[in-house]
Specification:
By secondary structure, the protein is an alpha/beta fold. The chain has helices at 14-22, 29-37, 41-56, 97-105, 127-140, 151-161, 165-175, 190-196, 203-215, 232-249, 275-288, 299-302, 304-310, 327-330, 341-350; strands at residues 59-63, 65-68, 114-117, 145-148, 179-180, 219-226, 252-259, 294-295, 317-320, 354-357, 365-367, 372-374. The chain has 15 helices and twelve strands. Bound molecules: iron/sulfur cluster.
Length: 376
Amino acid sequence: MYQRHSFQTDDPRLHPIAEKVLSSQRLSAEDAMALYRSGDVLAIGWLANFVRESLHGDTTYFNVNRHINPTNVCVAACRLCAFGRKKDVPGAYTMALEEAWEIAASGYSEDVTEFHIVGGLHPDLPFEYFLDLISGLKERFPHVHLKAFTMVEVAYLAKRAKLSIRETLRRLKAAGVDSLPGGGAEIFADRVRRIICDHKIDGQQWLDTARTAHEIGLRSNATMLYGHIESDEDRVDHLLKLRTLQDETGGFQTFIPLAFHPANTPLAHLPTTTGMMDIRQIAVGRLMLDNFAHIKAYWQMLTPRIAQIALRFGADDIDGTVIEEKIYHDAGATTPQGLRRQELIRLVREAGRVPVERDTLYRPVTRTETSVTVAV
Ligand code: SF4
């Protein structure tokens, strides 16, 4: 058990925050600003680790998943993005359905429990392509959880199919979508969105789409892209909006802070994030989002080294094997495009934590040489 006196800081602003954290009181916007502005990142990490260990002990979750990006053709031209392409330009691709199903099956010997499926906003692909993609995957891999389409993609599909968001989500769910990823949230503040992703749905539409997904029984994650032109106030606003919606629906599973990778984007002149910025973001997320069960250190964006450290700063999840990550590698990520299950386990163990393989819904997965069992 932790003793109150083991918290130490020379930053007086952190003392009242520590009192609140240690007595499970909710932190305010002013507290969040102090967390962003304090120089004592280790003390902030101590507090975040206190919350993380109170919730999960040493348990650190990971999964065996595979990313599928069916197309990089996109009508939007977000300045934050190195992945999207206009159609008919070099490097643009769209998978035929058979190709996507083949890719899902190929190249990896261990059974995946999740396909993470996201892509560009293709101007010509009909809604049926996406429904067929999903139902075809479900038919071929009935035990694999399909985590598919960001709120941004859902809103675009709805617009193109002339359906409501609710009906679009209903049809995707009926086709086999099991939950939604958390991408496209970026930073909710209009001022920032206008510059980094002005063709996307706005922050309120993202939140409304997530609310509708949760209402019809689809859980989702939530992200925040940091380290570009946003201010501390913008990040606080983003976190509080997520917390408010989570109070309402309880439908978010995991918060994933995403470090901005500027290479090959129109914002390439911006510096990359630093290690201190990355671990502070994990810690502030853990402290502010008291109603989120999980905080993920997404190793692909943070690097496995920073992700390991993050496991002591509030994160309880290190994401999955991924296999063939494209989006951040187009933006210059130098991490491997996938990690083996054993490599993830080693990273977690060397951080002094206990690795637990999970499925997308955080149910423990047990493997033998011949079987994969999910505890329900
Ligand atoms: S971030 Fe998404 S919506 Fe924006 S250009 Fe890239 S793929 Fe398209």
